[in-house]
Each structure stands twice: as structure tokens, then as C-alpha cells.
């Protein structure tokens, strides 16, 4: 996980550098009320009251007990006033797709992409997408991708995008349109759940991935894959043989938080070309109890 600065995020701060924190002030009554003058101003030095330390200790013990019971951490220091000054528009990478040319018609499904990408903070990696679905990535110049458009992608016009990231996840993108001339293979294979771009909160040890397959009895097997766009490591999650239902469920054990690409392949029984999907990009994040906090106090009495 990236190091976080502890200052306020802005609209440009990527999700990987964001963290929800709960700030609250918890003190005993003696911190705010002078027993000798209860209707007057708060005491300038509440610790002068002989009972103050004991009352404050009781409050701190109560707060630690509540944190232990609920898993909610409360920061009692003053919230930050500074704002993120590294994730700013001036540091956004500039991306230009130099190959293929915009509006080119591809007679085959072979796809060669070349990109120029520059950034004030350098380029860490470039990711490639077709209609928002992940195709691959590259981590070294010249940034390029040599791949085959999945055979489930339809004939016609599609949007090709290259997204460049620097070392602290500032990102910039370039897009062009391309035309695929040949028809998709017969049959339909799709990762139905999760959706492309979905954020998954780690509430359990695994996530149920649903793949839909038309005429499943015509296929020998269906396989689910998971890939890290950062390390470009692709792992087989599971294979289901001789499917009978058009909806096939896989249990995907979470390995770690971050971005993951899910895809599926299906092998026909007649030996014809296998079906393959484009990559569905999902964002796995830690479970956040802050989403269900009461609006005023995380520890109602």
C-alpha cells in the first residue's frame, strides 16, 4: 500500500492514496466547565482541578473500550488543514497514441499499440483499454502493447484508450477510435459480476464472480483468470468442467487490495476456437466501518 501523507485529499488525489479518518474531541466535563464558575468561560488550565486527570483517564479508557468493541478508530488530534499538493493537474501525465492511427480499420484482430507518455514525475506504467475493458499494460519505454482483440468483441467501431501513471498514481489518458472489420465468433461469454470499474469492499475472504455463457452444454470447460495490471501476473482462479448452467459462479479469494483484472475463457467441445473475454477491472479496498457510522457520534450511548 502507498504511504499516505495525512493531509486532506483533493479531487485529483487517486483512490489508492485516500483514507477515511474520523476526528472527534472527547473530554470530561471538567475540560469545559470550571467548577468554581460553572456559568463562566471554559477553564484556561483545566488540569489545575484536582479531579481532572482522573476524569480524563476514565474518558480515555472508555474511548479505547469502544474502539476495541467496534473496530472504529477515532483520531483525537486536530484534523489537518493542508491539502494534497502532489496530485495536481500540473503533474498529470500527457499521453499520445502514435499507433494505430485514429479511425483505422483492422482487417484482423491483431492489435499493435504504441504510445508516447511523459510526466513531470516520470512514468511508472501504461495501461491499455478497449471500450473501457483492460487489454494489457507496459512498464518500460517505448510503451507498447502487442495483443489480439478478444474474439467476443463485436465488429464495428471501438474506443482504444492508453492510461499512463506516475510513481504516485497521477494519471493521464489518450484515446482514439478504431474499427474492427471481422465478426466476433459465435457464442457469448461475459463476466457478469462484478461490473467493469466496480469497487469491491473486502467484507469476506472471497468474492463470488458470475460468468455467463450461451449454450453451456457445447463447452468442455470455463476458466476464470485474475491479473494484476501492475505486475502483469496472470493467475488461474478456477476451472469449471462440463458446465450445464448459463450462469457459472467462481469463488475468487482476495489476495491483496488494489486493482485487479478478471477475465474468462471457454473451451468448446468440438475443438473450435476458444471464447475469451476482455478484462474487467475492479478495485479491491479494505472494509470500511466508517460508511455506517451515525452522523453525530460513532459511539452512541
UniProtKB/TrEMBL annotation:
Pfam families according to UniProt: Big_7
The name this protein goes by in its record: Uncharacterized protein
Organism: Candidatus Uhrbacteria bacterium GW2011_GWA2_53_10
